[in-house]
Amino acid sequence: MGRYLSKKIAIYLITFLFAVTLNWVVPRLVPGDPITSLLARFSGLEGGREILQSYFVQTFGLDKPLWSQYLGFWRSLFMGDLGISITRFPSPVIDIIKTAIIYDFIILLPSIVLSWIIGNKMGALSGVSKRADNFLMPVFYFLTSSPYFWFALVVSYFLGIVLGIFPISHAYSAAMTPGWNWAFIVDFIMHWFMPFITMFLVQLGGWAIGMRNMIIYETNTNYSRYMESLGASKRLIRNYGYRNGILPQVTGLAISLGTIISGGVLTQVVFAYPGLGYTMVQAIKQSDYFLIQGCFLFLILMVLAANFIVDIVYMIIDPRVRHSYSEEA
Amino acid sequence: MRKRVALLLVVLLLVFSSSIALAAERHETLVVGGGPWNPATNWNPLYPQRTSATVGLVYETLFAYNPETNVYKPWLAERGEWVSDTVYEVELRSEARWSDGEPLTAADVVFTYELARDNDLPYTPIWRQLEEVNELSPTKVQFVFGDPSYQEWQIELYSRPIVPKHIWKDIPGDQLLIVANENPVGSGPYKAGEGGSDRIVWDRDDNWWANEVFGQPQPKRVVEMIIPENNVALGMLMQRTLDLSNYFIPGIPAIKNSFGLNTWFDDAPYMLQANTAVLYLNNQRAPMDDVAFRRALAHAVNPEVIVERVFEFMVPASDPTGLFGGWMAYHDPDVAREYGFGYNPEYAVQLLDEAGYVDADGDGWRDLPDGTAMSFEIIVPAGWTDWMESIRIISDHFRAIGINANPAFPDQSVYENRMFTGDFDMLINNYGANVSGSPFTYWNWIANHNIHREQATEGNFGRYDNQELFDLIVEFNKVLPMTEESLAIASQIQRILLEDMPAIPFWQNGMWSTSQSEWWTNWPSEHNPDGYPSTWGGYWQMGGVDMLINLRSTK
């Protein structure tokens, strides 16, 4: 058990180191620099641009050699300092992320958990009922093959523009002031619904297809046939099949977390929903090094943390993993 | 079952009651989009990258300027004039007050300028021409110049926010650009409200000093939504959740009537003009260093095709001089007629043939007179769909007369880097060609003299070198506006630019503005030209606040 964990943690640390370094290097490989971009449209008295330029370069330490910027970056990172945003000067990046990440959680967490649970149940149903299968499978295939941003546009068009039920963008209405009152909560949920349902439905299809195939496979295995010959009920056989089928689905969840989180980024852009993804796309458009780094860092952390949780869950639900490691130790 | 019905009823009731409450607030809220790209984090009037509406809504300028009517409207000032060649005097309005109740006086104006004299601020260079600023009385300010630049001063008058001395005098010099200035104390009609990461909120100051002078702005609250994609802005207009969009939205002419959307003009060109889009030619590279070649290019393109296919008639083709709006006061129609250019491919071919740009090797493309093959790349930033389509058309037109030109779309930061360092053949740009109170803005950008350095950031990206023209532009700045002398210099500048054609103005980008009238009416338009329908940074004092005053709620 301890070995299992320490091995996993080591892998996570290495991944983290590489991902964060890449994330630091890539924006800096692009020709040009954020200050020039920031001031590209500066209009004013001649000479004003130079004054600002030198001021910014000093403030953000961009005049230092790259290696020293890189070391400084890690040093501040360990102290929880992600720097100051260039485009949202003088807000610290960590403050911007703290506000944004809430929106990621409220979309991603329920959509991942619910789509996984409901998708597996529906897939199981599809696997045992031919009639349900004929109807559900095309829907599942349609959902799972839809790119997130495209599906978001479809949802936005039908539920937002054509039917006019849900607002198509932002976290709450313009005339609203945030507060703990019913009007605001209802308004907030109305705005939350379309990004949520987009994420939920696209993920749902994949889980359902996976579970359907697992159930069909499991109910045709020797142990199922043996149970059948012993006179076990169809229901009991299905339950055993389901429990065996769930294991690859957990692994599947771990594998697809990266795709889901990047899908969340695009969905947020379509709905102008102000989470990390939306913030990061804005930052990239304006070459705000520090904000890009911060957002990306948190997206990496989210993927890693979620994977870690899945790993632990896997260990708990799969006795083979649990036993293999504890016996060796 | 009964429980479920009850639950459903409760939910419906909640949704219903909250929508009623919302509608009441909505009638007092103006929702706009297109100005800011980031949420509000900075309300510092001295810092140019501040939340843009800070100047105009919270801090005010001495004058306002309406680019459509070319009229300077005294704002904090009651009047201002040149009392001699080097002395400008401003009489302030005695009513002017800060939002904390303190009077706004000459001392604040003097302080605002002396702040830039004693510290390094973006407007510190004004002291290259200014010698002293004096408080003659609590409402009278005197600006004494050494060597006044009259044209720039006109722009300065409506650009510089006046800051309260009693607050800013306590801020140390090295903090002036750093402070975020949350809870700004200004003199304007709005105060910073509580925004979010996807919006900026401004709450009306009901005690604004000018309620009696100019009238009270109607929206109790102005909300600027941050919208990352143009199609979202269009959807919000259709859903009636956005009142005014200042984004470029393709297709407006086609859907305008069916969705009840308003534009400035009922018909083409629909939009007001905001700036001139110019094709920069790299004058440092052959054959763009040859006047005949440059003039041939100018005659080879039909901008009407761009206007029609890319912009659906939402913008007009540019005048050959590149001037528009208030700048037209200096336009010389004779020069434009005699030296101007227009779509004439036969003439372009003739110019090229005469100058020796013929197809020497028989590959179908023209070559340099010495026989070397030529090919060109025209660049605009990736994702700027309107410009991308435009340079496809321009390339086609060049290719039609045998010039091998190809469009390319680098990322914006790469594009800007190549533009500033002169690493390009041709590109479209408009950064410094924005509407202003003086054509000096345009000329000092298209033929800027700061080209002999690593990065040319002030304009003239093609690095066209003509000292005579540079001197004329400086001279234009240094003579009193709209005098015979200044008009004569303006004509000469236009003639040289047209004769030499260092860069080619092709079309005018629009002051994109589309509104709907579900919640607010009386939008500024050709029928109601009082105010300017823009929420872009720098435009609030160019008629944006007038728009807020003139709007009417539909309640």
CATH topology of the domain at 272-511 in chain B: Dipeptide-binding Protein, domain 3
How large, in whole angstroms, is the Cα Rg of chain B? Answer: 26 Å
- Separation of the first and last Cα atoms of chain B: 41 Å
Low-confidence stretches of chain B: none
Distance between the termini of chain A: 8 Å
Spans where pLDDT lies below 50 across 5 or more residues of chain A: none
Q: Tell me about the largest β-sheet of chain B.
A: 7 strands, mixed
CATH superfamily of chain A: MetI-like
The name CATH uses for the topology of chain A is MetI-like fold
Q: Using only CA atoms, what is the Rg of chain A?
A: 25 Å
What's the total count of β strands of chain B? 20
CATH class of the domain at 272-511 in chain B: Alpha Beta
CATH architectural designation of chain A: Orthogonal Bundle
What is the C-level CATH assignment of chain A?
Mainly Alpha
What would you call the shape of chain A? globular
As laid out across the biggest beta sheet of chain B, the strand order is: 8-9-10-1-11-18-12
β-sheet strand percentage of chain B: 15-25%
Which structural category fits the helices and strands of chain A?
Answer: mainly alpha
CATH architecture of the domain at 272-511 in chain B: Roll
Which labels suit this protein?
heterodimer; A: mainly alpha; MetI-like fold; 13 helices; 78% helix; globular; B: 555 residues; alpha+beta; Dipeptide-binding Protein, domain 3; 7-stranded mixed β-sheet; 17 helices; 17% strand
